[in-house]
Design a protein that fits this description.
InterPro entries: GAF-like_dom_sf (IPR029016), HTH_MetabolicPath_Reg (IPR050707), Tscrpt_reg_IclR_C (IPR014757), Tscrpt_reg_IclR_N (IPR005471), WH-like_DNA-bd_sf (IPR036388), WH_DNA-bd_sf (IPR036390). This protein is of the alpha+beta class. The chain contains 10 helices and 7 strands. A hairpin with a 2-residue loop joins β3 and β4. The protein is elongated and about 70 Å long.
Amino acid sequence: MSQTVDRALSILPLLAEGPADLGQVADRLGVHKSTALRLLRTLHEHGMVYRQSDQRYRLGARLIALAQEAMENLDIREIAHSHLVRLNELCGHTVHLAVYEEAEVLYIDKVESRYPVRMYSRIGKPVAITVAAVAKLLLADLPEAELRALADKLDYPLYTARSTPNAPAFLKELERVREQGWATDLGGHEESINCVAAPIRGADGRVVAAMSVSAPNVVVTAEELLTLLPQVRRTADAISGEYSGRTPPKDPKDTV
Protein backbone atom coordinates (compact mmCIF):
# COMPACT_ATOMS: atom_id res chain seq x y z
CA MET A 1 0.00 0.00 0.00
CA SER A 2 2.80 2.44 0.88
CA GLN A 3 4.40 1.82 -2.52
CA THR A 4 1.09 2.57 -4.23
CA VAL A 5 0.69 5.81 -2.31
CA ASP A 6 4.29 6.75 -3.08
CA ARG A 7 3.76 6.17 -6.79
CA ALA A 8 0.50 8.12 -6.83
CA LEU A 9 2.10 11.07 -5.09
CA SER A 10 5.03 10.94 -7.51
CA ILE A 11 2.62 11.71 -10.34
CA LEU A 12 1.74 15.14 -8.93
CA PRO A 13 5.20 16.79 -9.32
CA LEU A 14 5.34 15.46 -12.88
CA LEU A 15 2.00 17.03 -13.78
CA ALA A 16 3.03 20.26 -12.05
CA GLU A 17 5.58 20.59 -14.86
CA GLY A 18 2.76 20.46 -17.41
CA PRO A 19 0.28 18.01 -18.97
CA ALA A 20 1.59 14.47 -19.57
CA ASP A 21 0.18 11.43 -21.34
CA LEU A 22 -0.12 7.92 -19.96
CA GLY A 23 3.18 6.79 -21.44
CA GLN A 24 5.10 9.69 -19.89
CA VAL A 25 3.59 9.00 -16.49
CA ALA A 26 4.41 5.28 -16.74
CA ASP A 27 7.98 6.04 -17.80
CA ARG A 28 8.51 8.48 -14.94
CA LEU A 29 7.22 5.96 -12.40
CA GLY A 30 8.99 3.02 -14.00
CA VAL A 31 5.78 0.97 -14.16
CA HIS A 32 3.56 -0.61 -16.79
CA LYS A 33 0.94 1.60 -18.42
CA SER A 34 -1.86 -0.39 -16.80
CA THR A 35 -0.48 0.40 -13.34
CA ALA A 36 -0.07 4.07 -14.21
CA LEU A 37 -3.63 4.15 -15.54
CA ARG A 38 -5.06 2.74 -12.30
CA LEU A 39 -3.24 5.39 -10.30
CA LEU A 40 -4.37 8.17 -12.61
CA ARG A 41 -7.98 7.01 -12.49
CA THR A 42 -7.95 7.03 -8.68
CA LEU A 43 -6.45 10.53 -8.60
CA HIS A 44 -8.99 11.63 -11.21
CA GLU A 45 -11.89 10.34 -9.12
CA HIS A 46 -10.71 12.51 -6.23
CA GLY A 47 -10.22 15.58 -8.41
CA MET A 48 -6.45 15.55 -7.99
CA VAL A 49 -5.80 15.17 -11.72
CA TYR A 50 -7.88 15.94 -14.81
CA ARG A 51 -7.88 14.17 -18.18
CA GLN A 52 -7.95 16.59 -21.07
CA SER A 53 -9.62 16.05 -24.43
CA ASP A 54 -6.20 15.18 -25.92
CA GLN A 55 -5.94 12.33 -23.36
CA ARG A 56 -3.16 14.04 -21.46
CA TYR A 57 -3.43 14.57 -17.72
CA ARG A 58 -2.91 17.75 -15.73
CA LEU A 59 -3.34 18.74 -12.09
CA GLY A 60 -6.99 18.88 -11.06
CA ALA A 61 -8.93 21.84 -9.75
CA ARG A 62 -9.62 20.06 -6.46
CA LEU A 63 -5.91 19.78 -5.69
CA ILE A 64 -5.35 23.44 -6.49
CA ALA A 65 -8.34 24.45 -4.37
CA LEU A 66 -7.06 22.43 -1.42
CA ALA A 67 -3.63 24.03 -1.69
CA GLN A 68 -5.18 27.50 -1.79
CA GLU A 69 -7.42 26.76 1.17
CA ALA A 70 -4.49 25.43 3.16
CA MET A 71 -2.43 28.55 2.46
CA GLU A 72 -5.30 30.84 3.44
CA ASN A 73 -5.74 29.01 6.73
CA LEU A 74 -2.07 29.10 7.68
CA ASP A 75 -1.39 31.45 10.57
CA ILE A 76 2.13 32.79 10.16
CA ARG A 77 2.02 34.26 13.66
CA GLU A 78 1.17 30.91 15.23
CA ILE A 79 3.93 29.18 13.30
CA ALA A 80 6.53 31.85 14.00
CA HIS A 81 5.85 32.65 17.65
CA SER A 82 7.87 29.90 19.33
CA HIS A 83 10.84 30.71 17.08
CA LEU A 84 10.61 34.40 17.99
CA VAL A 85 10.46 33.57 21.69
CA ARG A 86 13.53 31.37 21.48
CA LEU A 87 15.53 34.03 19.63
CA ASN A 88 14.48 36.55 22.26
CA GLU A 89 15.62 34.19 25.01
CA LEU A 90 19.03 33.89 23.39
CA CYS A 91 19.70 37.55 22.57
CA GLY A 92 17.46 39.38 25.06
CA HIS A 93 16.32 42.03 22.58
CA THR A 94 12.90 42.92 21.18
CA VAL A 95 11.75 40.64 18.37
CA HIS A 96 9.03 41.66 15.90
CA LEU A 97 7.00 39.92 13.19
CA ALA A 98 5.40 42.04 10.46
CA VAL A 99 3.28 41.62 7.32
CA TYR A 100 2.26 43.84 4.40
CA GLU A 101 -1.47 44.51 4.10
CA GLU A 102 -3.31 47.13 2.04
CA ALA A 103 -0.30 49.41 1.51
CA GLU A 104 0.72 49.24 5.18
CA VAL A 105 3.27 47.19 7.09
CA LEU A 106 1.87 46.02 10.41
CA TYR A 107 3.37 44.35 13.44
CA ILE A 108 1.48 41.14 14.16
CA ASP A 109 3.67 39.78 16.96
CA LYS A 110 6.19 41.12 19.44
CA VAL A 111 8.37 39.56 22.11
CA GLU A 112 9.58 42.16 24.59
CA SER A 113 13.19 42.81 25.50
CA ARG A 114 14.46 41.59 28.84
CA TYR A 115 16.17 44.95 29.36
CA PRO A 116 14.57 47.89 31.23
CA VAL A 117 14.74 50.17 28.15
CA ARG A 118 11.99 48.97 25.81
CA MET A 119 10.47 49.94 22.47
CA TYR A 120 6.99 51.44 22.28
CA SER A 121 5.91 49.48 19.21
CA ARG A 122 2.55 47.72 19.45
CA ILE A 123 0.96 44.71 17.75
CA GLY A 124 -1.44 45.94 15.08
CA LYS A 125 0.32 49.28 14.71
CA PRO A 126 1.69 50.30 11.29
CA VAL A 127 5.45 50.72 11.10
CA ALA A 128 7.33 53.68 9.64
CA ILE A 129 7.17 52.25 6.15
CA THR A 130 10.01 54.24 4.56
CA VAL A 131 12.64 53.38 7.18
CA ALA A 132 11.68 50.19 9.06
CA ALA A 133 13.81 47.15 8.25
CA VAL A 134 10.81 44.81 8.07
CA ALA A 135 9.07 47.18 5.66
CA LYS A 136 12.09 47.26 3.37
CA LEU A 137 12.04 43.47 3.07
CA LEU A 138 8.30 43.25 2.45
CA LEU A 139 8.23 46.04 -0.13
CA ALA A 140 11.39 44.92 -1.91
CA ASP A 141 9.55 41.73 -2.88
CA LEU A 142 6.67 43.56 -4.58
CA PRO A 143 6.38 43.50 -8.39
CA GLU A 144 8.41 46.37 -9.85
CA ALA A 145 5.45 48.32 -11.22
CA GLU A 146 3.53 48.06 -7.95
CA LEU A 147 6.60 49.05 -5.95
CA ARG A 148 7.31 52.15 -8.06
CA ALA A 149 3.69 53.25 -7.88
CA LEU A 150 3.72 52.86 -4.10
CA ALA A 151 7.06 54.66 -3.74
CA ASP A 152 5.72 57.65 -5.67
CA LYS A 153 2.71 57.90 -3.33
CA LEU A 154 4.57 57.66 -0.04
CA ASP A 155 5.54 60.58 2.14
CA TYR A 156 9.15 60.59 3.32
CA PRO A 157 9.22 62.15 6.78
CA LEU A 158 12.68 62.93 8.07
CA TYR A 159 12.48 61.26 11.46
CA THR A 160 16.27 61.56 11.82
CA ALA A 161 19.24 62.53 9.68
CA ARG A 162 19.39 58.89 8.56
CA SER A 163 15.80 58.67 7.32
CA THR A 164 15.14 57.84 3.67
CA PRO A 165 14.57 61.26 2.05
CA ASN A 166 12.74 60.53 -1.20
CA ALA A 167 11.45 57.91 -3.65
CA PRO A 168 14.69 57.47 -5.68
CA ALA A 169 16.69 56.84 -2.49
CA PHE A 170 13.99 54.47 -1.24
CA LEU A 171 13.98 52.43 -4.46
CA LYS A 172 17.78 52.26 -4.42
CA GLU A 173 17.74 51.00 -0.83
CA LEU A 174 15.12 48.36 -1.66
CA GLU A 175 17.21 47.16 -4.60
CA ARG A 176 20.14 46.66 -2.24
CA VAL A 177 17.90 44.85 0.26
CA ARG A 178 16.57 42.57 -2.49
CA GLU A 179 20.11 41.65 -3.54
CA GLN A 180 21.50 40.96 -0.06
CA GLY A 181 18.40 39.28 1.38
CA TRP A 182 18.24 41.19 4.67
CA ALA A 183 17.68 44.73 5.89
CA THR A 184 18.57 47.18 8.63
CA ASP A 185 17.27 50.35 10.19
CA LEU A 186 20.23 51.99 11.88
CA GLY A 187 18.77 55.08 13.49
CA GLY A 188 16.45 55.85 10.59
CA HIS A 189 13.31 56.11 12.69
CA GLU A 190 14.75 56.88 16.10
CA GLU A 191 18.36 57.96 16.55
CA SER A 192 18.82 55.60 19.48
CA ILE A 193 17.20 52.47 18.01
CA ASN A 194 18.80 49.99 15.62
CA CYS A 195 17.21 47.00 13.92
CA VAL A 196 18.20 44.04 11.74
CA ALA A 197 15.62 41.99 9.84
CA ALA A 198 15.23 38.90 7.65
CA PRO A 199 12.44 37.70 5.32
CA ILE A 200 10.07 34.78 5.80
CA ARG A 201 9.15 33.11 2.53
CA GLY A 202 6.30 30.89 1.40
CA ALA A 203 6.45 27.79 -0.75
CA ASP A 204 6.67 29.91 -3.91
CA GLY A 205 9.66 31.85 -2.61
CA ARG A 206 7.74 35.10 -2.15
CA VAL A 207 8.13 37.06 1.07
CA VAL A 208 5.05 36.55 3.27
CA ALA A 209 6.35 38.21 6.44
CA ALA A 210 9.47 39.69 7.94
CA MET A 211 11.02 39.40 11.40
CA SER A 212 13.48 41.64 13.17
CA VAL A 213 15.57 42.16 16.26
CA SER A 214 15.72 45.70 17.64
CA ALA A 215 17.67 47.29 20.46
CA PRO A 216 18.56 50.76 21.75
CA ASN A 217 22.12 52.08 21.65
CA VAL A 218 22.29 52.17 25.43
CA VAL A 219 21.93 48.38 25.47
CA VAL A 220 23.94 47.35 22.41
CA THR A 221 25.74 49.21 19.62
CA ALA A 222 24.69 48.93 15.99
CA GLU A 223 27.84 46.94 15.25
CA GLU A 224 27.09 44.50 18.06
CA LEU A 225 23.49 44.12 16.91
CA LEU A 226 24.64 43.27 13.38
CA THR A 227 26.56 40.29 14.75
CA LEU A 228 23.13 38.74 15.43
CA LEU A 229 22.28 38.73 11.71
CA PRO A 230 23.21 35.04 11.19
CA GLN A 231 20.89 34.02 14.06
CA VAL A 232 18.09 36.22 12.74
CA ARG A 233 18.42 34.75 9.25
CA ARG A 234 18.51 31.18 10.54
CA THR A 235 15.37 31.82 12.57
CA ALA A 236 13.61 33.32 9.55
CA ASP A 237 14.68 30.36 7.42
CA ALA A 238 13.33 27.92 10.01
CA ILE A 239 9.98 29.72 10.08
CA SER A 240 9.95 29.77 6.27
CA GLY A 241 10.57 26.03 6.12
CA GLU A 242 7.79 25.25 8.56
CA TYR A 243 5.33 27.68 6.96
CA SER A 244 5.93 26.41 3.43
CA GLY A 245 5.96 22.75 4.45
CA ARG A 246 9.52 22.19 3.29
CA THR A 247 10.62 21.05 6.73
CA PRO A 248 8.75 19.55 9.71
CA PRO A 249 8.35 21.62 12.87
CA LYS A 250 11.45 21.58 15.05
CA ASP A 251 12.35 22.76 18.47
CA PRO A 252 13.27 26.42 17.87
CA LYS A 253 16.43 26.03 19.96
CA ASP A 254 17.84 23.96 17.11
CA THR A 255 17.55 26.85 14.65
CA VAL A 256 19.28 29.77 16.31
